[in-house]
Amino acid sequence: MHILGDLLILLGSIFVFLGALGLIRMPDTYNRIQAGTKAVTLGAIGVFIGLAILYPSWATKLIAVMGFILLTSPVSSSAIARAFYRIEKQSSAKD
User: Fold this and answer.
1) Per-residue H/E/C for the chain
2) What is the pLDDT of residues 34-80, one digit of tens each?
């Protein structure tokens, strides 16, 4: 079980790194939001599942944090994208 927990933490860390790299490499704001949200959420979940395997006494707290991330991440990325769209729309209307 120790190896499985370590592998999940490593896999989650790789997803977090790729999400951060996507924030730098993607061409526009909408792609950056997607890279930051999806990859980092999946990476955080992988890290938390790996930690829950390594430390079973932390499992309930980690499940609560995972639930919080799964509920708030899509909402926050949607709010950011909507705000950017409105700002972009207002600036193009002024021109």
Assistant:
1) CHHHHHHHHHHHHHHHHHHHHHHHHCCCHHHHHHHHHHHHHHHHHHHHHHHHHHCHHHHHHHHHHHHHHHHHHHHHHHHHHHHHHHHHHHHHHHC
2) 888 989 999 999 999 999 999 999 999 999 999 999 999 989 999 99
